[in-house]
Design a protein that fits this description.
The protein has 218 residues and is α+β, with helices and mostly antiparallel strands. The chain is built from eight helices and four strands. Helix 1 packs antiparallel against helix 6 and helix 4 runs antiparallel to helix 5. It starts with a strand and ends with a helix. Bound molecules: glutathione (GSH).
């Protein structure tokens, strides 16, 4: 049994959840927020989520956890067979995780958690998000999946991050910046047909709704 520690607000946690479901692995979720408390740092030394407990072995970093799953459960592969295909999937996934999500982070944290964001911050976030989306649109060739014929890490990152970017830019900038990606509508529909993605998106929406309902009560 694998235990996933995190929250559905987090794109990085959602990556791991999608991969676990895709692999058909038995797992449970324990709602956990990032923290610098010593007890948390024992399990997640940077105090970040997600982290997992694999029968007593603690592991952090979403991509590392995906790599562990790929090694441990090679069937239902989440990387294409050829070296070039694998590299391309990792390249897209890395761009989405390391550039797109951090670029949209200030908008998302402002919208959901009320983190301060002034006009200069808004404009900086917009420029940063646009830059990554433009870079991605140069690389993406739906085949039909992001890195080609096979559903891969690239799609897992996209499924985890694109809805957050669409939501945050729509809500804070009044414009869904992801629409610049060619074929995005059709691609999101296709992603949403996968049970792993549909479940993860539904959990994210439920968490958002509950969060805002609680905020209104407070
Ligand atoms: N590179 C990490 C990023 C994880 C990450 O930044 N998680 C956020 C939540 S979405 C977090 O824990 N932030 C708190 C912090 O950075 O202290 C991964 O892929 O797992």
């Amino acid at each position: 049994m694998i235990t996933l520690y995190g929250v559905p607000f987090s794109a990085y946690c959602n990556k791991v959840k999608i991969a676990l479901i895709e692999k058909g692995v038995n797992f449970q979720e324990v709602p956990t927020r990032p923290s610098q408390e010593p007890a948390m740092l024992e399990k997640s030394p940077m105090g970040k989520i997600p982290f997992v407990d694999i029968n007593g072995h603690w592991l952090t970093e979403s991509t590392v956890i995906l790599e562990w799953l790929e090694d441990a459960y090679p069937t239902a592969a989440l990387l294409p067979p050829s070296p070039n295909g694998r590299a391309h999937a990792r390249e897209l996934s890395t761009m989405i995780d390391q550039y797109l999500m951090p670029a949209a982070g200030p908008l998302y944290r402002h919208r959901v958690f009320g983190a301060p964001l002034d006009d200069a911050g808004r404009q900086a976030a917009r420029a940063a998000v646009e830059k990554v989306l433009l870079a991605l649109s140069r690389l993406v060739k739906y085949g039909p999946w992001l890195a080609g014929e096979d559903f891969s890490y690239a799609d897992i990152s996209a499924a985890s991050v694109l809805p957050i970017v669409a939501y945050a830019t729509r809500e804070v900038l009044d414009e869904d910046l992801t629409t610049v990606l060619p074929g995005i509508e059709e691609y999101l529909l296709k992603l949403g047909q996968r049970p792993s993605v549909a479940k993860t998106w539904a959990d994210w929406q439920t968490a958002l709704d509950a969060w805002f309902a609680n905020q209104q009560k407070a």
